[in-house]
Amino acid sequence: MIVEQLAIVGTGLIGGSFALALKQAGAVREVLGVGRNPESLKAALERGLIDRIVDWAGAAQADCILLALPVGDTAAVLQRLAPHLKAGAIVTDAGSTKVGVITAARAALGARSADFVPGHPIAGSEQSGPAAARADLYQGKRVVLTPHADIRTDALATVRALWEAAGAQVETLDAALHDRVFAAVSHLPHLAAFTLVDELAQRADSDTFFRFAASGFRDFTRIAGSSPEMWRDIALANREALLAELDAYLAALQSLRQAVEGSDAGALLELFSRARGAREDWMKSQDS
């Protein structure tokens, strides 16, 4: 047993899967659920993701509280929890951006920000809600913790132990570097997928394009099925890093356009070969 009581704010795919995994591992005695959607909480209770539904004051009395919600809601939720936090309670999150979240935690929690452990599980799917939760979601997946200067070391150790009990491989990273990395490898791909689908959908003859779209289009745009609310918040929260990656990608697309326009077969072959090789190397590293 790592903690007696765990509270989950947001009992969907991320929070619900965390709870299920820890229950199966015997790492937590009781899981409490709190959130803005009564139907979602009821579904989480019926599925056994949580043991009880509580209010904000009740959630703040847990030993550890996971915020599994859109990053744009973090500040408001921390402000609701802050007046009720019991001594020694740990607060952690699962947001995809970290610099803004740490800033929000310091503003809302004051001295208690030492109890805040910023985290980001690198797992998930385009599905959402309690029905999508599963106990093996984090098995073998990376979780990044981004400890800040005034973090309490035993709080960090507890959150690490919880994620490891859920089956994850835990790494630490500087928060600013985290946001730069994920702007490139996660946030930009999602925005590209959303934008391509929307651009086609706005055409007068979009039904023709979608009728003939096949596996390549499906694979590339799968992540456009993700939560619009969540990705709106991520785009705004990681604005500076994402703008830099958008500029770099636009420059690369412009070079590609020039190669196509100029019928530069050599440049195209070099680009495609280089990209395929880089992807193959990355895929091999995932298997090792």
Net shape: elongated
Can you give the mean pLDDT?
A: 94
Largest beta sheet: what is the strand line-up?
A: 3-2-1-4-5-6
Number of strands: 9
Q: What structural class is derived from the secondary structure elements?
A: alpha/beta
| Count of DSSP-assigned helices | 12
Judging by the overall fold, what is the CATH architecture of the largest domain? 3-Layer(aba) Sandwich
What is the CATH topology classification name of the largest domain? Rossmann fold
What is the C-level CATH assignment of the largest domain?
Answer: Alpha Beta
Largest sheet: 6 strands, parallel
The SSE string, one letter per element, is EHEHEHEHEHEEEHEHHHHHH
N→C terminal distance: 31 Å
Task: Please give the domain count.
Answer: 2
Radius of gyration: 21 Å
Give the helix proportion (percent range). Answer: 40-55%
Any idea what the CATH superfamily of the largest domain is called?
A: NAD(P)-binding Rossmann-like Domain
Q: Residue ranges: pLDDT <50 for 5 or more in a row? A: none
